[in-house]
Amino acid sequence: MYCTRKINKDLIWIGANDRRLALFENIYPIPNGVSYNSYLLLDSKTVIFDCVDKAVSGIFFENIAYALKGKSPDYLVVHHMEPDHAAAMEGLISKYPNIKIICNAKSLAMIKQFFGFDIDSRAQLVKEGDTLCTGRHTLTFFMAPMVHWPEVMVTYDAQDKILFSADAFGSFGTLDGALFADEVEFEKDHMDEARRYYTNIVGKYGPQVQALLKKAESIDIRAICPLHGFVWRKDIATFMGQYKKWSAYTPEEQGVLIVCASIYGNTENAAEVLACKLSEIGVKVTIRDVSATHFSYLLSDAFRYSHIVFASLTYNMGLFTNMETFVHDIVAHNLQNRTVSYIQNGSWAPVSAKLIAEQLGKLKDIQTLGEVITIKSSLKEKQLLDLETLARAIAEDIKTKRG
Ligand code: FEO
User: Is the CB–ligand 1 distance for residue 79 below 6 Å?
Assistant: First the structure.
């Protein structure tokens, strides 16, 4: 049965939720599922903004048929060709062969890569600043390359002042009956997943996100309709503020993330002792075990906190696999502007700090704080002072940065 929600008198959400997918992009756990948002504009000409993933295409087609009362849509606007939004396009074309496809030249090339249907006779190409009048509404198209793929574009509806923002401003998690961010306790219940979505999906492309934010600042936006997660009609500036921080690699909080790789618990013990010493002097701290927490959560935490302590064993003269994955991930996502410290362990040749530092050397504005604390197999009483000294140095650094 169809399941839609009205955004305003002309605009309807016709997307779908997926609670069965374990791994988004076959890599990121989504315990709360994900929504694939598609929108239908009802005007003299009708417009569908993006499709959905193949897994939920059944309900998507039911939603279209219901919302259009059996009529055919005039246009499909393609903001992004990743299959979580574009896979149902082929089915849409076969149901509505007369639909026109509004896309840019890069999307056109990708449509030909993904599908075999005749696109040339249906495509209407747009570029930066082009407009489409549908009756009461005029749509303006803005290119947003690399937010998250090269062909991404967004659309602004000047009539209702709505930005269709593609992957930007999205979140993991199903909608569960709500549609607007102000219908849920977003900060409390959804911000962590919005951060994990941003950092893992588009975190690498900070400058490109900033370019989009700059364009967004030049227009009057009353609502944002992303391709995943909630629609924003209140507190837009607050959420944009988060995007400004994340895309500039500015820490959200002055606090410490201790990322720990430990096999028999000795490195973890040192991490625990440091965490206690930090907490005792009023520093916010969180410990994550690389073997217990998926790296997508670790990356999200790394974007959140100002200071990262790598507490890592040495494994076969190299890095422990899960720690290596985490380090690779923060380098791959271009994390910048962090202060890092090291605790390394090894029963015969502790080298993890050196190996991690070599990787972090590829990143901008990474400052190292304190001496490397080296453990040979287990923490010794006399090393408690070293941990105390590191905790105090971090606390002092945070105090200075808070100003
Ligand atoms: Fe939600 Fe980049 O696709």
Answer: no
